[in-house]
Write the structure tokens for this entry.
Amino acid sequence: MRQRVGLAIALFTFWLLLSGHFTPFLVAAGIGSTVAVLAVCARMRILDSDGQPLHLGARAVGYWLWLSWEMAKSAWDVTKLILSPQPQITPTLVKVRATQSTEVGRVIYANSITLTPGTISLEVENTAIIVHALTREGACSLEEGDMDRRVTRLEANG
Amino acid sequence: MSLLADIISWALILAGSFFTLAGAFGIIRFPDLYTRMHASGVIDPFGVSLILVGLIVQAGLSLISVKLTILILFLGLTSPVACHALGRAARHRGLKPLLADREKPPSIS
């Protein structure tokens, strides 16, 4: 039920923000679309905490900000490598531990790895992620597990 | 005030353009698919997001900036998935990544 109401509010807000018109016809069409999408989602049985991770709540915003800063730092590192006359790249494959207990947590972790330039998640397993890193230093800093711990904390107390 | 907003937004747009251009260079310069994907990672979520944030500052508080924010979120959710799918597909097809040798690092043209 919580999932249904949350998704309905999110979908209808999305409609209003994208349309920007508040005539009765368009608002009614928005309500109709919201109900239709909810019905389709219910039929597909994707109305659960995996489909709508509402429990992450406001802490997700804090995580986004932290991740943006990490992206900026590693984007700058990769840019320096690209523009240096003799780039010293050391491509590395590593298997990093993923301590998240839920699928949503693992997806967030794998996507965060890919979002930071210089590391790409190639394969997601139950307790580990295979990562391709542009430099050996990048692989090492990932293995220290700071990002892993942050994602685990994000998914944990829901 | 509008001058300050102009300065901030132009700085962000120019920085985004710089990273996008650098990423394009990287796609040409790096040796194999996996390393080139790292270069495209500088463009796709990061450089483009900087340009979009710059445009948000230009737009001010309006529905346009809300739409641009939604665009950034959309980009942040979809582009790593596409990138992961590409790398995973290449790996499953048996494309071996070019790995660094401890003695001699791969040469770059």
